[in-house]
Amino acid sequence: MHQxxxxxxxxxxxxxxxxxxxxxxxxxxxxxxxxxxxVDVANLYIKTIINQDEASxxxxxxxxxxxxxAGKQSAEYASYSDLKAADARFPTETGKLIADLFPAAxxxxxxxxxxQLAANVIAAKNGALCRATKAAPVTVENGIQxxxxxxxxxxxxxxxxxxxxxxxxAKSGCKVEQCTAGLQKIAAxxxxxxxxxxxxxxxxxxxxxxxxWRNDFARETFDExxxxx
Length: 229
Fold this sequence. Notes:
Blueprint: H1 2-34, H2 38-49, H3 54-70, H4 80-99, H5 107-126, E1 129-135, E2 139-141, E3 144-156, H6 162-170, H7 176-192, E4 195-206, H8 218-222
Antiparallel strand pairs: 1-3, 2-3, 3-4
């Protein structure tokens, strides 16, 4: 009887503890999110938009969700599945654009090489090594707090970017075999070339200390990476 009472008491204590932990988790998560520094938030944006890192997408969504919902925006800032779907389409869609630069009679023949070039380009973009380095002191204007975060990416340094390189090749009068080999050579530069540093500044803002640091136009900054590819 005594053992049964002890077992029952232990079970009740375990259940109570589990319930307390479950109730505390949202508060803990919210507190952690609120304490993210501008540099940390910038890194989440970088990992989401440039690298499409699944864990970073989930964490950025969770961090921004309360502020987005309060502003009557959609709960999710980014969709990991949509990002990956766009990546999956890139080689085919961009490969077609590249192949269309060439005479119609050879487009089918050069398409595989064109798609491989596009695949190497998107892989180079996703594989860029980036990190936020420091944040300038927070400024306040009209009640808006803003932190300018410096960041740096190591991006492949190709001799000529894929778009002008493919255009030059298409205008060269090359034969099918030469055009195919030329596209393969351009594609290879994206896996064998050294790295270069791309440095820029990414600003995050918020209205109140309790709100999330954010940048609703983040892609405008990070899309500049394509100028290096």
